[in-house]
Write a structure and sequence with these properties.
Length: about 300
């Protein structure tokens, strides 16, 4: 177990908003590495390898300075969580090479919906009509963003959808890890195991990066490590129901980066699809908060 951080909604909101800026930046960098902007395009598996490599180096350096106390890890949960995280990140990086950042980001916001569905068989949770309605609304938004017409459908959008599904499974394992270990330990082990998996997967696809691509890979890893650190610290300082809505800032930053660096202006379909997904996710979030309050009241009466 670990000591809880002092609770502060203002600090948590600042931390999570900063985290979203860095998360969107990792997607922007992945998009650049997957194109020919700085040399021959790198495979998504190589981009994912760079993300884990340099994030692990950054976190290891932080561990050397901070010397955190480590508890006995639950290796099974760590391996399951990291495998899903690696696969989800790789698919997300692959998708942003072909579709707008805002579209890919919005689709990946389906991960809590997939987590809700997977929690039925894996955690034995019951799902009522409100949560099913929220899931249906979010999936309707995803369908809008997939643009399922012969003229506009882009198969790469399915990569983002697959990433959301796998990240939803990752949330199940994160939920099982919550409270067991120090957040910094979870981050360090996650990136260390992710590096091992990514190093094996990249062997058949690795190619010598250009100097500029090396710089971007380093920046990618450090941005992800920074985003993760801000995120876990935000979660430690406020209720998840308060912090979660701020994570949608990722979509705002992704759209902004697309405009600034690729001159891609979101169209009406992107706005409609993103708004629909976020609406579904917010309904789900509010319902989860309500159920948590109800459970707390029942526990208090016992």
């Amino acid at each position: 177990m670990y000591l809880a951080k002092a609770q502060s909604n203002t600090t948590a909101a600042t931390l999570i908003t900063t985290a979203t800026a860095f998360i969107a930046a990792t997607m922007l960098i992945a998009k650049a590495l997957g194109s020919d902007s700085f040399g021959p395009p790198l495979h998504a598996l190589q981009i994912s390898h760079g993300r884990f490599l340099f994030a692990f180096i950054g976190l290891s350096m932080a561990a050397t300075l901070l010397r955190p106390q480590f508890a006995r890890p639950h290796w099974g949960l760590h391996l399951a969580r990291t495998s899903c995280g690696w696969a989800g990140v790789t698919l997300m990086f692959a998708s942003v090479a072909y579709i707008p950042l805002a579209d890919a980001t919005a689709i990946t916001f389906l991960n809590p919906v997939f987590a809700m569905i997977l929690a039925i068989p894996l955690l034995g949770e019951n799902v009522g009509r409100i949560r099913w309605s929220a899931a249906a609304l979010a999936f309707a938004g995803a369908l809008i963003l997939l643009r399922p017409t012969p003229a506009s459908f882009d198969p790469a959008a399915l990569l983002a959808l697959a990433a959301a599904a796998i990240m939803g499974l990752e949330l199940i394992f994160i939920k099982k890890l919550a409270g067991r270990e120090n957040p910094f330990q979870i981050l360090l082990f996650n990136n260390g195991l992710g590096l091992c998996i990514a190093s094996i997967a990249v062997l058949a696809f690795w190619q010598p990066p250009t100097a500029a691509q090396w710089g971007l890979l380093i920046t990618l890893g450090l941005c992800m490590a920074t985003a993760q650190s801000f995120f876990v610290n935000a979660m430690a300082r406020a209720e998840a129901s308060f912090v979660a809505p701020f994570s949608y800032g990722t979509l705002i930053f992704a759209a902004l980066y697309d405009v600034l660096f690729y001159n891609v202006i979101p169209d009406s379909v992107t706005y409609l699809g993103a708004a629909t997904i976020i609406a579904g996710a917010v309904v789900l979030l509010l319902r989860e908060a309500q159920l948590k309050r109800q459970a707390a009241k029942v526990a208090a009466k016992q």
